[in-house]
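Hi everyone, sorry if this is the wrong subforum. Our group has a chain we'd like a structural model of before ordering constructs, and none of us has done structure prediction before. Sequence below.
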Amino acid sequence: MSQLPSTPPPKKELLRVSRNYLNTLYALVPLLMTYWLLQPEWLSRNVVDSLNALLPIYFMSVLLYLAWRTMRIMPAAIWTGLVWYPVNSAVFYGLGPLVEIFGNEITRAIMSSHYLSITEVELFRAHKLSVTGIFMVLLGLNLHMIVRPRVWILSAARQAAGPVFDPMKLGMAFLVLGASFKYLLLKPAQWGMLDLTVAGVLTAVGNLTDLGFAVIAYCAGRGNRLGKILIWAGLPLHVFISLLALSKLEVILAVLLPSIGYFLGSRRTGKLIRHLILIAIIYAVLQPWVHHGRTVIAERNGGNINLAGYGERMEILGGYLLSGSEREIEGAGEERQGWWTRLNFSGSQAQAMNLYDRGFSNQTLHTAWMYFIPRAIWPEKPILYGPGLNFYRLLSGNDQGQSFLGLSIYGDLYWQFGWTGVIIGCFLFGWLLGITASRALRAVRAQEFVMLPFIMMALQLASASPNKFVINGVIGPLPIMIFYYLVLSSLLRVLRKRSHKSQPIYYDRKFEA
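Answer:
Right subforum, don't worry. Here is the predicted structure as tokens:
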């Protein structure tokens, strides 16, 4: 497990990945047939419980093997949804729902009295929804590889031409620009320290900090001494500051992106596995801190979880570490497996299915057009929030609650259009992943890291968007992704012409499907 073998030529590599996906689809067919042919209402509770335990384990194993084999065949795919979409699906829709069966006694007792509590039959239906939706996404993604192979393959001549920007210099530029913007402007504006509203299209600039560390880690993996020094000296500080954001995603990205950058440079799978284990531990440890920090800030600011500056957040973190306040808030927190329940979307999916079956469908897509109009053109454009708050109030009956309840795109598509929406919508989402992953892959293979803002958005589309509503998980990010793709690819074309190099074939003049 030291280093990966040398990769095959691009066409053969793509063919092997496509076959790997096709074999996964074959492996999921028996599972899909089981869910669609069996009627859980006709079976005993013990049989349904057994199915709810065994089938997700099989599902999770197939998807993790898909991700592993894809990474082995095509190491650069670690920067794309080809790897991270199966991982997301395995964790949240394979491992997560198993807490309903294998969670400890206290965890299951708390879940049974929760407003998201479900029966074993509803859990079976939630599994059926997840497997059907994920199967259609994988089908759409694989079909894009088969139908559009040209956009996946970077010519050997273009790959040999080398990048426009030196990766190490670009990484340092990303780091300086991203950190300056994020910590001196973006965060102070978001946390109420500055009376300023930052345009949505500019918020992605803050991610340049993580991307800068990713490129520097890539150089460190290739033996660059300065890269190694910057990682050891700067990354721990960046991770610490990310803790103050009270966002699990920010901390995970701060650790994950340098990890996969280092892997791309070194091809050392052993270190990657150790990094992923560390990230899993960090995720579990972060849960009580994020809950505690948000609760304290909300209590001080009338429910607003953002209005607190650097000093106040550090004071809250210091008090948390010294007093162990998470035990006071969560009570039986050491025994309740909160990290596991947060990976479980089966309750919200089942409740959304019940709402649709009773004639109450979701109507949130009617505002989709608003996401495509820039605030510069429409200054009075309203602040667009996800439907999670209304979903929470609808299910909990608490009209004053401030929680944003999560729902997967599979549950949302069913809630809006039933099974027809799941089948068609998930296939189209898979095709979209194919469009974004193909362009990200080609940029990574050419070491055109100037495209990293787009690559990261494509990565988040595959790894985070499935766990959201369609409107804020898929529709919302699209305009910004398209904008960055067009701007950055146009910049590269201009720079290549000025450097007397031929125009790259992998940046099209339009965001084609």
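For your construct planning: The two ends are 37 Å apart (CA to CA). The chain is about 70% helix and 0% strand.
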